[in-house]
Structures are given as structure tokens and as C-alpha cells.
Amino acid sequence: MAEIVSDRIVLASKQKWSPRKLLMDLIEEEASFRREKTVRSRIRRASLVESWTLETFPFDLQPGVDQAQIMDLADLADLDFVRKGINIVFIGKPGVGKTGLASSLLLKALLDGYLGLTQRMQDLLDDLLRSIADRTTKNLMNRLSRLDVLLADEMGYLCLNKDQSNLFFKLMDNRYLAKKSTIITTNSGFDDWGNFFSDPAMTAALLSRLKHRCIVIQIDGPDLRDPNLGTSGALTFKSP
Q1: What is the spatial distance between Cα 114 and Cα 111, in angstroms, rounded to a whole number?
Q2: Which pTM does this prediction carry?
Q3: 51 with 36, same domain?
Q4: Ranges of H-type helices in 67-136
Q5: Same domain, residue pair 11 and 51
Q6: Whose CA is closest to 187, among 153, 222, 214?
Q7: 23 and 119, same domain (yes or no)
Q8: Phi-psi category of 193—alpha, beta or left, where left has phi over 0 and alpha has psi -120 to 50?
């Protein structure tokens, strides 16, 4: 408001605005600026790992994705999956666009006022394990459990030890009870998850919670990083 007030006073004088109209105009500009600043802060804190949006994702080059289904999930007037704490699991081989689509859905949620975060699965596990040493597990768990949307990227490229498995299960259990949405990208079907979790019984309990409220999107299609497709693995980011 302070930056624009001089120009607005000049404009108000030329157009013969009433003092009330001038004041309302300044207040609306200030409110708009603060809303934009808040949105940008949410996006920055969410640590999005892909620059694709639903407007730039090459649906025409990825026949393995049902565009209508993705757009329905991202409907800003609804975002049912966030409000109801529905999980989304993208399954597919590397390069098919799992992380790009997951990031695009998270971005839509952030623009709609929800809080979210993206973490590589390895980084998430490292943070949880490190919290035991510095005795911050409770605080970290609480913070991650309160997020409206948590995107855990690249599950399936590692083998978890007992502590990592237990911590991840606790996190997912907390989010299940709080009805918070978790988006997971993985190259492994559910039948293979026992290969990287250490306890079969815990794996079954984890999958029971995850799948209770869940949409599974299996992507069988070409590698979008293939230069022959014309995407070159990089699309233009449209800043909100």
C-alpha cells in the first residue's frame, strides 16, 4: 500500500474518486499483495522437485495417463482427495511422468490454500532417522503429520532397516488417523513392497492403511525423457 499510495492519489484526483473509494482501492491492493506473498511462501516451503504443471505436462505424448482423471483430481473447486484425506499412488517405470504429475497436483493444492511438502523418500527417511539422535522425532512427526499433502517421491529404490521402517509406518499411521493425503511415486507395485520394508506384518499393516482411502494410477507408457519425443525432459514452468 505504501508503494502505490502516491500514484493512486494522483489517479483518484484525475478520476474524481471519493475518499472512501480511494481507501477501498488501497485496501484491496494490500490484501491482494498479501495473498500472493502467502501463496509464493507456501510453494517455496513445499520444495517442489519438478517444474511441470498440469498446463505444461505433455499428455499428448504420454498415452499411459488418463488426462481426464488427473484434471478431475486437480479441480480447484473441489480437490476432493485433499479434503477427504485420500492417498494417491503413482506406479510406473522411470521417466513416465510420475513425479511431474504428483508435483502438479501438489501445486494445485498449494494454490488452493493447503499446506504441503515434497521429499525424496531417501531424504524423508534420513530426516526421520536423524531425529532419533537429536531427540526431535516427536516435533518432526507432528509437523509432517499435520501437512495437508505430503509427496513422498521415489519409493522403491532402497531397502529400509527396522528403524526406518518403524518410523515411516508411524508417520503414515499418524496421517491415516488425521485423514491427511499422501502422494507416493514408485516403480514397484504393492506386491513388491515387502522387498524394501523389513517386517512383513508391518508392511501389511502399512498397505492396509494406505489403500483404505487411495487412488492408484498405473502409468504404462514411454519415457518422457527420450529426446525423440521432443520434451527433452524440461518444460516451461508457469509461475502462479
Answers
A1: 7
A2: 0.84
A3: no
A4: 67-73, 80-83, 98-111, 121-133
A5: no
A6: 153
A7: no
A8: alpha
